[in-house]
Amino acid sequence: MRAVLIKDGKGPVENLYIGEVPTPSLGNGQILVRIKAFGLNRMDILQRNGNYPVPPGASTLLGVEFSGIIAQLGQGVSDEWADGDEVFGIAGGGAYAEYIVVNPTHLMHKPLKLSWAEAASVPEVFLTAYQGIHVYGRLQGTESVLIHAAASGVGIAAIQMARAAGATNVIATASTKEKLDWLRSIPNGATHAVNYTTQDFSEEVRKITSGAGVNVILDFVGTTHWDKNIDSLGIDGRMVIFAFLSGSAIPTADLAPILRKRLQITGSTLRSRSLQYQADLISQLKTEYLGKVSGKDGDGVIRTYIHKIFNWSDIQAAHKEMEANKNIGKIIAEIV
């Protein structure tokens, strides 16, 4: 089969190319999927550069989310699945390819209202947002949440989930007026938007919440946001850390407000979690949200938004688009 490969095993975007590799072998209880589209994530860039270890037993190929058609069923797969079924799901790796082998627990039936590209934009993003808002953030109705990197796929999904959960204030941060205006304009979008490059977001949080602070923060930034995040959290506040785009080291940190405000700070990963944990999370997402999701032109309470769709032969351009950090929503590649 064809797959996106990396010359020399790691390196700059110019090292990406499409080459031939063996089609993955199908084991008992597994499903072979012919991929139609896959989503790009920032971890793909880290892995391409040699800075993201692949989970044990996972494919070393890039890509963790996809949509496609079931091509073959392994022995023992339940009759819930059949050849030709349209599906989407996640994997530990291997989605930048024509075929992928996955466990049935990591697949979902593709709703007819979602295109291949829209379906591929959902799994990793919505599962990550669900972890932040519900599993670790434990957001309750009428609470307030601050979401950084809000124009990313995860950020957009988290904003809508928070609104659906009844949050009073959903405060989004981003780096441009274009992104912030868009986040306020979408159905179930942010209630407030802050440009972290020109405004002190902790001061804005204080104004918006009348000094109470937010109950939940979803952070992808790290070093540069740490002090203001701690300032922004209210009593018993919860901060979920997904990444550290500005760095992971905090040169000096005052622990007093963490103790005084009884703060809870949690790291969140998905790719490295156990298959059972991932399966349980997928089951929860299906039950609580899948029926509410539509494309941007649909009528879903929650919608998936795509920044741009690339032919996978233009995978270098797709990675450059993500590295430029100008996207609002997901970047998708279609296999044609």
Characterise this structure.
The chain is of the alpha/beta class and 336 residues long. The chain is 27% helix and 27% strand. The protein is built from 10 helices and 17 strands. It has helices at 42-48, 116-120, 123-136, 153-164, 177-185, 201-208, 226-232, 256-260, 275-288, 315-323, and strands at residues 2-6, 16-20, 31-39, 65-73, 86-90, 99-102, 107-109, 144-147, 169-174, 192-195, 214-219, 233-241, 264-267, 293-295, 302-304, 306-311, 330-334. The strands form 4 sheets. Strands 3, 4, 5, 6, 7, 16 and 17 form a 7-stranded mixed sheet that branches. Strands 10-9-8-11-12-13 form a 6-stranded parallel sheet, sandwiched between helices. Helix 6 (201-208) runs parallel beside helix 7. 44% of the residues are buried.
Which terms would index this structure?
single chain; 336 residues; alpha/beta; seven-stranded mixed β-sheet; six-stranded parallel β-sheet; 10 helices; 27% helix; 27% strand; globular
Question: What topology emerges from the helices and strands here?
Answer:
Layout: E1 2-6, E2 16-20, E3 31-39, H1 42-48, E4 65-73, E5 86-90, E6 99-102, E7 107-109, H2 116-120, H3 123-136, E8 144-147, H4 153-164, E9 169-174, H5 177-185, E10 192-195, H6 201-208, E11 214-219, H7 226-232, E12 233-241, H8 256-260, E13 264-267, H9 275-288, E14 293-295, E15 302-304, E16 306-311, H10 315-323, E17 330-334
Parallel strand pairs: 8-9, 8-11, 9-10, 11-12, 12-13, 14-15, 16-17
Antiparallel strand pairs: 1-2, 3-4, 3-6, 3-17, 4-5, 5-7
